[in-house]
From TrEMBL:
Belongs to the importin beta family. It comes from Syrrhaptes paradoxus. SMART domains: IBN_N (SM00913). Residues 28-100 form the Importin N-terminal domain. This is Importin-11. GO terms for biological process: protein import into nucleus. Keywords: Acetylation, Cytoplasm, Nucleus, Phosphoprotein, Protein transport, Repeat, Transport.
């Protein structure tokens, strides 16, 4: 492709490819696809996206095509690979100027340079790193930033290579540039701190961005650039300096307002410091030994004492707690049962941990976790009032929940309590004893403290097995607290029912269960259940009472409550609106049906009538449909031969769930096949409708997937039901499918085919 004549044509087609008109867009995309393998095409793209006078959208598209071309055609062994001559020209052109004015395009250029570096650096591209090191020293702000951005992406990409030869090359690179990277980071960090002191906000923001990028480079070099980093003075010097720098940046955050642009970047660099420590601990636990003391002192100081007040923010607290947790749980720091079998490194780390976690320190951590971090916040209480279902879903594992502070504090509590249970058990029991008796309804804080302490007792249930007489506690206090109807007491009612759910599989007398069923029925009869105590809490308890592997469950104890429980759960299923809550209700209903089996028959009429409507309403919610399928499986088993009355709804559901041409089958197929099999097993005869849905089977057999075993069971079920009628319709198709299957399945699979 001649560059001069081609540039105009390619530019014109790229312009058309940015059009919103599909009549213009589609032909342009086709033409660009044809040019992908043409010699010189990527040189033309390079000229276009480095020409800052052209339209930004066109340049953006040129960069993307160039980047995709690297993935497909850069390696020598790739079909239609670029020539070595063109690659040499392109490499030189990519690092001629680091002066891209548009941030998004600059990032893409940095990424594509890193992609080339992954293949060619350092052997075919020895000048890349020296050029970058020189470019980050220039005084021009734009060039310096773009070079630093590229330096980071190149370092990140090279550090991710895992072959031994590539690791060796990265170790050599890290040793050669580490000192420079440290000085670069220190320079930009000092410059930022000075500019903040003088109030030069614009300059400080620029310096902070450079400090952030240089720290990102150092993170990759430190974590992945050395086999035994504890022998490198500069690496350990940098890691020890991290704590002092963190303190400087945290203090700096006091003077920067939350709405300030600089504040967001400042929090990012603070989090990045903690990531350096966490990554280093994860990759080099023994090299981290000399940092254990400092890390624990720093994290505990900011999270569990007044030192952090007015400075710390949620994500920083989460990171500090993760650091403590990783040190406490780290397998490398745990001594063997026979102490003499432990390595000297393990003994040293264990000694440091033991010296730090004294009784006063552990007591303070435990108390702060429970009485500070476990407390429901005003924001949470407000959300509970305004949207109780959403609050329940969030608290029991919504998408944002796993990234929030509450689960992190609970996991840290569980890990520390497990590790130091002999020390912490008396502390927690003393907190429980201090809360015995009635609670002042006007004292909101006292109610929230009790909620938090009960939460701790539930989380530590297994550790407290020998220390808590839960049966007596339940009879003497918890049961009474469930009956308190005051609106302000709803956090305790919710927590108590959750607490019982935690303990029921740990330590709870079977004879007490009828009292529990009575209490839970009363809660379900609460007309304002959704806003009053959360349906999720009640369901959690019921789920704890009814698991299949619970050997303490006695059907005869539950039967007196079956009708009312089932009716109330069905009413709840109709009342709640959140998909997650409906799924949870269905799960509990399924457990009830599974537990009592055929004895459910008198009570399922209302549910049978409602499920078709719910199925229709859940068209966009495949996970809810999975829950409906599971409920149907248990319903069919409970109804036995009477399940034929469900066929007008049941068979279309099976048809849809097992039709591989329908998109929902990705979610529904496994449960759909099980429902199909259970339906056949409980069918008194083979109906024409059951015969019709077998048309789905040939496509299922072609999948040759993990579902084959169930498919064979379904085929056998049809044969057992009515062999002559079934085989008359499908024998020829089945034989063809089996002959195809036998060619590419395992010996075990072939045996299954022959059995059929």
């Amino acid at each position: 492709m001649d560059l001069n004549s081609a540039s105009t044509i390619v530019l014109q087609v790229l312009t058309q490819a940015t059009s919103q008109d599909t009549a213009v867009l589609k032909p342009a995309e086709e033409q660009l696809k044809q040019w992908e393998t043409q010699p010189g095409f990527y040189s033309v793209l390079l000229n276009i996206f480095t020409n800052h006078t052209l339209d930004v959208n066109v340049r953006w598209l040129a960069v993307l095509y160039f980047k995709n071309g690297i993935d497909r055609y850069w390696r020598r062994v790739a079909p239609h690979a670029l020539s070595e001559e063109e690659k040499t020209t392109l490499r030189a052109g990519l690092i001629t100027n680091f002066n891209e004015p548009v941030n998004q395009i600059a990032t893409q250029i940095s990424v594509l340079i890193a992609k080339v570096a992954r293949v060619d650096c350092p052997r075919q591209w020895p000048e890349l790193i020296p050029t970058l090191l020189e470019s980050v020293k220039v005084q021009d702000d734009l060039r310096q930033h773009r070079a630093l951005l590229t330096f980071y992406h190149v370092t990140k990409t090279l550090s991710s290579k895992r072959l031994a030869a590539d690791r060796k090359l990265f170790y050599d690179l890290a040793s050669g540039i580490y000192s420079f990277a440290c000085s670069l980071w220190n320079h930009h960090t000092d410059t930022f701190l000075q500019q903040v002191c003088t109030g030069n906000e614009a300059a400080a923001t620029n310096s902070l961005e450079r400090a952030l990028l240089s720290l990102k480079v150092l993170r990759k070099l430190t974590v992945h650039g050395f086999v035994e980093p504890h022998w490198n003075v500069e690496v350990m010097g940098f890691l020890h300096a991290v704590f002092e720098r963190l303190k400087q940046f945290l203090e700096c955050s006091r003077s920067i307002k939350a709405e300030n642009v600089c504040r967001d970047r400042l929090e990012k660099i603070i989090i990045l410091f903690t990531k350096v420590l966490l990554d280093f601990l994860d990759q080099h636990p023994f090299s981290f030994t000399s940092l254990i003391q400092k890390s624990l002192e720093f994290a505990v100081s900011y999270v569990f004492t007044e030192a952090g007040e007015g400075i710390v923010f949620e994500r920083f607290i989460v990171q500090c707690m993760n650091l403590i947790k990783m040190i406490v749980k780290n397998y490398a720091y745990k001594t063997s049962k026979n102490i003499e079998d432990s390595s000297p490194e393990t003994l040293e780390a264990h000694k440091i941990k033991t010296a730090f976690f004294t009784y006063p320190t552990l007591m303070e951590i435990c108390r702060r976790l429970v009485t500070h971090y476990f407390l429901l916040t005003e924001e949470e209480l407000m959300m509970w009032e305004e949207d109780p279902e959403s609050f329940a879903v969030e608290e029991t594992g919504g998408d944002s929940w796993k990234y929030s502070l509450r689960p992190c504090t609970e996991v840290l509590f569980i890990d520390i309590f497990h590790e130091y249970n002999q020390t912490l058990t008396p502390v927690l029991l003393e907190m429980v004893h201090s809360l015995q008796g009635s609670t002042n309804m006007e004292d909101t804080n006292a109610i929230l403290i009790k909620d938090a302490v009960y939460n701790a007792v539930g989380l530590a249930a297994y550790e407290l097995f020998d220390s808590v007489d839960f049966d007596q506690w339940f009879k003497n206090q918890l049961l009474t607290e469930l009956q308190v109807s005051h609106n302000r007491y709803k956090p305790i009612r919710r927590r108590v029912i959750w607490l019982i759910g935690q303990w029921i599989s740990v330590k709870f007398k079977s004879d007490l269960r009828p009292m529990l069923y009575e209490a839970i029925r009363n809660l379900l009869q609460d007309q304002d259940l959704v806003s009053h105590i959360h349906p999720q809490s009640v369901l959690f308890f019921l789920n704890g009472c009814l698991p299949v592997d619970d050997f303490e469950f006695r059907t005869d104890q539950f039967l007196p409550y079956l009708e009312s429980m089932f009716t109330l759960l069905f009413q709840l299923l109709q009342e709640v609106t959140q998909c997650d809550t409906k799924m949870h209700v269905l799960h509990v209903l399924s457990c009830v049906i599974e537990r009592v089996n055929t004895q459910i028959q008198p009570y399922v009429g209302c549910l049978v009538q409602y499920l078709p409507l719910l199925w229709k309403q859940s068209e966009e919610h495949n996970m809810l449909r999975c829950a409906i399928l599971t409920t149907l499986i248990h319903l069919v088993q409970g109804l036995g031969a009477d399940s034929k009355n469900l066929y007008p709804f049941l068979l279309p559901v099976i048809q849809l769930s097992t039709d591989v041409s329908q998109p929902p089958h990705v979610y529904l197929l496994e449960d759909g096949l099980e429902l199909w099999l259970v339906t056949l097993e409980n069918s008194p005869c083979l109906t024409p409708e059951l015969l019709t849905i077998f048309q789905n089977m040939s496509a299922l057999l072609e999948l040759s997937s993990e579902y084959l075993k169930n498919c064979f069971k379904i085929i056998n079920a049809y044969i057992f039901l009515s062999s002559s009628e079934f085989l008359q319709m499908y024998a020829a198709d089945l034989c063809r499918s089996f002959c195809e299957l036998l060619k590419d399945i395992t010996t075990e699979g072939q045996v299954q085919v022959l059995k059929v």
